[in-house]
Amino acid sequence: MEATITKDNFVRLSDHIWEVPATFRQDMRVPARLYADEDLLNAALTDSSVVQLINTATLPGVTKYAIAMPDIHQGYGFPIGGVIATRLPHGVISPGGVGYDINCGVRILASQLTVEEIKPFLEELATALYANCPSGVGASGSLRLKKSELVEVLHEGARWMLAKGYARSEDLERTEEFGRIPGADAAYVSDRAHERGRDQLGTLGAGNHFIEVDKIVEVYDQSTAARLHIYSGNVAVQIHCGSRGLGHQICEDYVSRFQKNVHEYGITLPDRELVCAPFDSSEGQEYFHAMACAANFAFANRQLLTHLIRRSFEQVLGGKLRDFHLHQVYDIAHNMAKVEEHDLDGHRARLCVHRKGSTRAFGPGSPVLPNDLRNVGQPVLIPGSMGTASYILTGTTGAMQQTFGSTCHGAGRTMSRVKAKKAVRGGELRQQLKSRGILIYAGSMPGLAEEAPIAYKDVSRVVEVVHNAGIAKKIARLEPIAVIKG
Amino acid sequence: MLKALKVFTLMMNFEEIEHTADKAFRARGRTLAELLENAARAMASLDKVAAAGKSFVTRDVELEGADRETLLVNWLNEILYLEQTHREVYDRFRISQINDNHLRARLYGRPSANRVSHIKAATFHDLGIKQTPEGFEATVVLDV
Questions:
Q1: pLDDT (tens digit, 9 = 90+) per residue, A216-239?
Q2: Among the CATH numbers 3.55.10.10, 3.40.50.2300, 3.40.50.2000, 3.30.1130.10, which is that of B14-143?
Q3: What's the mean per-residue pLDDT of chain A?
Q4: Looking at domain A7-414+456-485, does it have CATH number 3.90.1860.10?
Q5: Which of residues 199-258 of A touch B (CB under 8 A)?
Q6: Looking at the predicted complex, does its ipTM rise above 0.90?
Q7: Is the CB of residue A471 less than 8 Å from the CB of residue A398?
């Protein structure tokens, strides 16, 4: 099934769009498109990520083309940085196309404090953040919910946090889906997933998850940035995490269960991790209800972390600095399957858009955006690798036309964890970053080495590609001053 | 001498292989039971969660899977589930009964010392249990 792929197999459609025609492999239903400059394309060809992209072009119901963003890298099943849309009602939904960390995403909070104001308190603040926001895969948080309360969280998402005093209504306005994805039904979430989620709200997790205190170093669009409370020289806080053990268990449950069912639908797959079911089948619907629960759990998790971060700011800065409040810029998901309407061949079509390591980037005018952002477009939050830059962008009309309203999600890895650990020692990396004015608090030094900046692509190049291809617009650039890692 | 032998045996039974974003290993075994036991050891060696105290724990496991590969993935995910929900870390694995769809096993370990674990789940990505002249071999990608 697997064919070797080289640059010669791509047709260059524009400066930043490369396409593998559907004739490349017999089982492809649509072409595969990659957004990249020439170097990023070459980087993508060094591992199996392009083969993984082509594999997604074989899924039943896939429409237009399978898409990869410039931060594409090898994942499991789908590549990281991939987008596919399947036509409903019969197109498939794939749990592996969402991944184990359902609704892994990013939230940015903006302060009105300048870097100079916060610097004398930075070490104390980072220590408070590390102490108040538990990290590690199995870490438990301060809330241990009764089963009935967890069910409410799964159905209500971040809105549950509003009722409990852990959110402000403005936070929900500035969250994708307003913090609650429709379709959640906890009846389709296993007891095991409930058990794993009960004490994990308000926890960060491990791997590439982090909380970062950033300085806003450059603003490209002053008026849009001001609408988002973003001003050059000010401090912002970034959260990257997802649905924790609850989401992992839901994905596991359905990937394992679908292994039995996939043959009943006559679906042949090039990789078992792509296992899927028609969206309108009972299996497809049950997964969708359960996935929505995990998505809501993740929105609630980032909301509770927001509360813990605000409390840390208050603990450390209260009585010392005046305006230490944190305004939510936005909260985005980058591992999710969503039912959306898009223009397809001149008609509106209902699609299941899988974004795995890709961010929704709806352009100006989208009715799903809050009123005050409707003429701006959806904020898009792109975290870079540790110690480098992160970006705030907005969604565009171009993204609506080209990529089902999607863009990149980060820098994208380019070096394996094994190589990164051989190339860098965690302790030395922490010292290097400290000498550049970046404080690092991490639970594991080998884990820190695996996330070293040399293991990632240059996020600025990735962002340039999506900006120049017109599938997102640059608004501001951030650089870290303190990083808290799982 | 004993230590060196142990390392040699471990190297024969499994090895970490490179993966850009996640973690992966190749495990081997003369029998299906040995393959799954070695896969569990491989996963434990990649996770490096430290044990605490002198108390020992055992957990009995009984699992089903649609085929060998599903059984292997379910086995690894069961271990992760038990480790994360009971806050334990296992280092010995004994499979007492196994066929292509079912296994019974006992896990031996201790309470975990720290909260740092990196593995979210074992995946089916490119997974196939191969028959080799020596027995069985499988490559597993772990989501981290």
A1: 999 999 999 999 999 999 999 999
A2: 3.55.10.10
A3: 94
A4: yes
A5: 206-207, 245, 248-249, 251-252, 255-256
A6: no
A7: yes
